[in-house]
Design goal:
Helices cover 83% and strands 0% of the residues. The protein has 147 residues and is mainly α. The longest helix has 36 residues.
Length: 147
């Protein structure tokens, strides 16, 4: 089997794995979000660890969404994984994520009159809404593309 055919099989396997893993990451992010609101004010060390984990998870998901991930794979494999359809799906997903983040910010702006929340809580909600919606949309589009 040629290297190109071998890479093609690897790309197919990695693309399918990506569509299975992304929703799990989204679920993990939502669970972290609920833990943030259910526990403490962030003054304890365990709260700081939980908040740091949320920041790292959000940043990693955002990096995967914007770059395609698979940084440890060869350039050829990354290029094959980042084909025109995937780039279009990523753009559509990031567009939806931006829209959800802006809508969440506007809703929070209105709700600040009746619901007391901190800037940190608002940031958590805005970032989570944007990243989570982009992640799920990208996953759905990629799964549909793979059939």
């Amino acid at each position: 089997m040629s290297e190109s055919a071998s890479n093609g099989a690897l790309v197919e396997r990695l693309a399918r794995r990506r569509t299975r893993i992304l929703p799990v990451l989204g679920l993990f992010m939502i669970i972290q979000q609920s833990a943030y609101f259910a526990h403490g004010d962030g003054s304890r060390l365990v709260d700081q660890v939980r908040i740091s984990a949320w920041v790292v998870t959000s940043a990693m998901i955002l990096l995967v969404l914007t770059t395609g991930g698979f940084w440890l794979r060869s350039h050829e494999v990354r290029a094959m994984l980042d084909d025109e359809g995937t780039r279009a799906n990523r753009a559509a997903a990031l567009s939806l994520g931006f829209l959800c983040a802006m809508l969440t910010a506007m809703i929070l702006f209105v709700l600040q009159r009746v619901w007391a929340f901190t800037a940190g809580e608002a940031i958590h909600l805005i970032v989570t809404a944007g990243v989570f919606s982009a992640l799920i949309r990208f996953s759905i589009l990629e799964r549909r593309a793979l059939g």
